[in-house]
């Protein structure tokens, strides 16, 4: 794999302090391999790059004939799909002709928002649309709400062969979706039992919709496999960028900088920052601990957030990511005839990719000058192979940072409590106590109100 470079000279941490984490990081990294080999809950993502993808390709072929594809899921069953779509397809994919696209137009139903639901239906012909529905438990309220509403629409339209239009991705043995798939006989893929949602993008959860859109998922997995080999082979903080970033994150968190600003200088990675935010926040926010992820995109957020970052409180660690080369570029003219544009002569003969990377370096320098801690990552280019490696890198980084913080990075008790209250408020049988609890908290919240 081409090298993923990490520069941390402006991270404002004594290297000797980072070395103090080496022994713990070695143990935590080794525990990941042991946990995966033993099939421990939450550790299955470690081995996903080696899993076969032939069945995913086969199911994807069954969906490619449709004009549109609607993917139904939320959280880890949706953010990864959007991330792969945005990073690896044309920014205006749905507006391309069928000949120019490599698959159906793609729509995502994640939030249980009626405006979103009806707006997606406005854009598709249901008779020419395929559907993927993803829920490991088969009971995720938002996903099942969208699915139930959509299933009713399909029956109302009396569409033939409904089972051939739907692919269910769920637990292999249990849950409402598994029972539904068995009842109607639709195609199914399995969510690996020991893989959590936010770590599932390199499983059928994320790979199926990407394969339908023509993404080379074998290259994604190849990149992830190569990254896995390097990360687990490098057992020194001197030669493992993930260990360095984990130690930096921990050291700055202890120093009161418990926010991590992740700022790629690529517009296509906007959804990657959303995927990372869930991965980082839901994995590390436990037991009163945590490092808050802040999403930004360069150079856009130079004009909206960098004022705060350079001149505001010193409570953040900054991670900026750039791409060395781009397959597409725009070149500026060598000379200008208009005198009114002479002030722009510094751009002449340059190209847009170089300009974007100079803007990243300008932000890095400005943050360093203001005394803020900065790390910089540079990847060769954003294609399926390197994206697969980057995904695995951040999953591994998150898991070992959880180990340093002494939290379980693979559970989400705070999320589960909200789900319990939601189902109770909707009238789930047997949840009367939880309903009374939730209503009591809501009465307290409403006890003081200000109305205009």
Automatic annotation (TrEMBL):
Keyword Cytoplasm set for record: yes
Reactions that this protein is recorded to catalyse: alpha-D-glucose 6-phosphate = beta-D-fructose 6-phosphate
Listed GO biological process terms: gluconeogenesis; glucose 6-phosphate metabolic process; glycolytic process
Keyword line: Cytoplasm, Gluconeogenesis, Glycolysis, Isomerase
MF-aspect GO terms: carbohydrate derivative binding; glucose-6-phosphate isomerase activity; monosaccharide binding
Positions annotated as active site in the UniProt record: 282 (proton donor), 303, 419
Keyword Transmembrane assigned: no
Entries under PROSITE patterns matching the protein: P_GLUCOSE_ISOMERASE_2, P_GLUCOSE_ISOMERASE_3
Subcellular location: Cytoplasm
Name by which UniProt lists this protein: Glucose-6-phosphate isomerase
Gene behind the chain: pgi
């Amino acid at each position: 794999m081409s090298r993923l470079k990490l520069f941390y000279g402006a991270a404002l941490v004594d290297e000797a302090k980072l070395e103090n984490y080496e022994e713990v990081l070695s143990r935590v990294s080794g525990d990941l391999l042991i946990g995966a080999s033993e099939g421990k809950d939450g550790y299955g993502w470690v081995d996903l790059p080696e899993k076969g993808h032939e069945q995913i390709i086969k199911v994807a072929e069954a969906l490619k004939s449709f004009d549109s594809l609607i993917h139904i899921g939320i959280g880890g069953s949706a953010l990864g799909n959007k991330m792969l779509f945005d990073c690896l397809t044309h920014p205006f994919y749905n507006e391309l002709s069928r000949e120019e696209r490599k698959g159906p137009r793609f729509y995502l139903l994640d939030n249980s928002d009626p405006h979103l639901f009806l707006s997606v239906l406005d854009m598709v012909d249901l008779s020419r649309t395929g559907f993927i529905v993803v829920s490991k438990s088969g009971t995720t309220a938002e996903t099942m709400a969208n699915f139930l509403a959509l299933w009713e629409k399909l029956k109302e339209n009396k569409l033939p062969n409904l089972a051939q239009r739907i692919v269910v991705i769920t637990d292999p043995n249990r849950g409402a979706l598994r029972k539904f798939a068995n009842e109607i006989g639709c195609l199914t893929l399995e969510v690996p039992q020991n893989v959590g949602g936010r770590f599932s993008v390199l499983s059928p959860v994320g790979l199926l919709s990407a394969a339908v859109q023509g993404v080379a998922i074998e290259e994604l997995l190849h990149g992830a496999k190569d990254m896995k080999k390097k990360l687990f082979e490098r057992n020194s903080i001197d030669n493992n960028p993930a260990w360095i970033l984990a130690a930096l994150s921990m050291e700055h968190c202890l120093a009161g900088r418990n926010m991590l600003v992740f700022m790629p200088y690529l517009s296509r990675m906007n959804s990657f920052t959303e995927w990372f935010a869930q991965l980082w926040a839901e994995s590390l926010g436990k037991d009163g601990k945590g490092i808050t992820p802040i999403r930004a995109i360069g150079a856009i957020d130079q004009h909206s957030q960098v004022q705060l970052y350079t001149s505001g409180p010193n409570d953040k660690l900054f991670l900026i990511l750039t791409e060395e080369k781009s397959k597409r570029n725009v070149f500026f003219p060598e000379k200008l005839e208009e005198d009114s544009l002479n002030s722009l002569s510094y751009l002449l003969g340059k190209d847009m990719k170089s300009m974007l990377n100079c803007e990243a370096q300008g932000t890095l320098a400005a943050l360093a000058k203001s005394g803020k801690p900065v790390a910089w990552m540079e990847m060769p280019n954003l294609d399926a192979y390197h994206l697969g490696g980057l995904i695995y890198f951040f999953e591994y980084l998150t898991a070992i940072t959880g180990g340093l913080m002494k939290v379980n990075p693979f559970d989400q008790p705070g999320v589960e409590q909200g789900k319990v209250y939601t189902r109770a408020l909707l009238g789930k049988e047997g949840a009367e106590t939880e309903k009374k609890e939730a209503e009591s908290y809501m009465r307290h919240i409403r006890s003081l109100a200000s109305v205009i």
